[in-house]
Amino acid sequence: MSISPHFPSLLLALLISLRGLRFSSLSPSGALAALLFGYLSLALPLRLFGVTLLGFYFAGSKATKLKHSIKATYEELASGSEGGRRNWVQVVCNAGVMASCAVSWRVLFGGEFGARDSWEDEGKWCVITRETGRWESRVLVLMAIAFSSACCGDTVSSFSLILS
Questions:
Q1: Residue 141 vs residues 52, 88, 104: alpha-carbon distances, Å
Q2: Could you state, in order of their start, the residue ranges of all structural domains in the chain?
Q3: Cβ proximity of 25 and 86 under 8 Å
Q4: Whole-angstrom Cα distance, residue 97 to residue 118?
Q5: pLDDT at 89
Q6: Between the CA of residue 110 and those of 5, 44, 87, 114, 145, what are the distances in Å?
Q7: How buried is 13 (Cβ within 10 angstroms: 0-12 exposed, 13-18 middle, 19+ buried)?
Q8: H helices within the chain, ranges in order?
Q9: How many CB atoms lie within 10 A of CB 78?
Q10: What percent of the chain has pLDDT over 70?
Q11: Is the pLDDT of residue 85 over 60?
Q12: Taking the CB of residue 92, how many other CB atoms lie within 10 A of it?
């Protein structure tokens, strides 16, 4: 069992979490949680989990920039957090399922933990088709995409409702 550390994934997760700190969208605890969950989602041979998480992060970041002064007033009243900085609890709620699916996929199909099916060794089969994919892979991938889509929809709709 050899575990590859995936340094580019660690670097990208670190840069994204530092960006969140710098632009005050994450608290220090939120940035640490984003670093952990970002790395767990990015450090796979299958890039889908990391790309989905990054898409959610950038879409949510763009949505939160719209009419910031109006939203800041509502967020301070509702959560008591200054300026809407996301803490570790909010990061876990939005990225926890995605990271769990990513880690499970890596253990089952990544080939590093003595997996019964190694995705790369078998010719990188399609992860969601019935003909070539494995049902466990299909469940993990579709669950991660569905959960991330729901979180993104909730984030974008909550900010658009404030503005209407």
A1: 10, 24, 10
A2: 7-163
A3: yes
A4: 22
A5: 93
A6: 13, 7, 31, 9, 19
A7: buried
A8: 7-22, 28-42, 48-64, 68-79, 88-109, 135-163
A9: 9
A10: 68
A11: yes
A12: 16
